[in-house]
Amino acid sequence: DAGVTQSPTHLIKTRGQQVTLRCSPKSGHDTVSWYQQALGQGPQFIFQYYEEEERQRGNFPDRFSGHQFPNYSSELNVNALLLGDSALYLCASTQDTTLFYGYTFGSGTRLTVV
Amino acid sequence: RKEVEQDPGPFNVPEGATVAFNCTYSNSASQSFFWYRQDCRKEPKLLMSVYSSGNEDGRFTAQLNRASQYISLLIRDSKLSDSATYLCAVNGNNDMRFGAGTRLTVKP
């Protein structure tokens, strides 16, 4: 049973460019959230998707956008990249929108903006 | 005040020691609480959920104090393999917020 899969694993982009990160949730999971984790920090909540809609959003600018597809997979898009966007981007999924069971995380995409 | 705050650490302990981590949260409506373990440059992995009555899993014990809005994790008989960053997580308004993590190093 595949867990949460993310692609790509590593990415280097230039400041000002745009990037798209992809996530396939664990089988049976329909809720996907994205987190940004800077070095030495805890994961910061970006947004959550359920039924192809953004349900909750953290304190991130509109440069961060997302999408969820009918098969529950999700994309995170970041426009006009800044050096400060360099981080590990984690996708997490769950089968329960109340989060009673917690999240399962993917191994992340490490984004470096130069 | 941050939504979830943890002991800043780091904790450096010898093998066999008992170590405790605390975490406070600000949202009194939170219903679910967790401890995650994160190894260097890896994803967080669920260590245990934290129930109102407290729960134990081998050498690990988690407790919740709703009145004071904090959760704790106790690790007994520390092993070298316990070295990692421990993240507490609290659900809020249909999302989950994490603390900054506490780094534990267990030394021989």
Describe this structure in words.
The complex is a heterodimer of chains A (114) and B (108). Chain A is 0% helix and 50% strand. In chain A, the strands form 2 sheets. In chain A, strands 2, 4, 5, 6, 9, 10 and 11 form a 7-stranded mixed beta sheet that branches. Chain A has 114 residues and is mainly beta. Chain A is globular and about 35 Å long. By secondary structure, chain B is mostly beta strands. Chain B is 0% helix and 54% strand. In chain B, the strands form 2 sheets. In chain B, strands 2, 4, 5, 9, 10 and 11 form a 6-stranded mixed beta sheet that branches. Chain B has a 5-stranded antiparallel beta sheet with strand order 1-3-8-7-6, with no helix packed on it. In chain B, a hairpin with a 2-residue loop joins strand 6 and strand 7.
Indicate the radius of gyration of chain B in whole angstroms: 13 Å
Average pLDDT of chain B works out at 93
Q: Could you estimate the helical fraction of the residues of chain B in percent? A: under 10%
Let me know the average pLDDT of chain A.
95
Total helical segments of chain A: 0
- Please state the structural category of chain A: mainly beta
Write down the oligomeric state: heterodimer
Q: Compute the CA-based radius of gyration of chain A.
A: 13 Å
Q: Report the major sheet of chain A.
A: 7 strands, mixed
Question: Helicity level of chain A, as a percent range?
Answer: under 10%
Q: Which blocks of ≥5 consecutive residues of chain B have pLDDT under 50?
A: none
- What would you call the shape of chain A? globular
Poorly predicted runs of chain A are none
Detail the topology: elements first, then pairings.
The complex is a heterodimer of chains A (114) and B (108).
Chain A: E1 5-7, E2 10-13, E3 19-24, E4 31-37, E5 44-50, E6 53-57, E7 64-68, E8 74-78, E9 87-94, E10 104-105, E11 109-113
Parallel strand pairs in A: 2-11
Antiparallel strand pairs in A: 1-3, 3-8, 4-5, 4-9, 5-6, 7-8, 9-10, 9-11
Chain B: E1 4-6, E2 11-14, E3 19-25, E4 33-38, E5 45-50, E6 55-57, E7 60-65, E8 70-75, E9 84-91, E10 96-98, E11 102-107
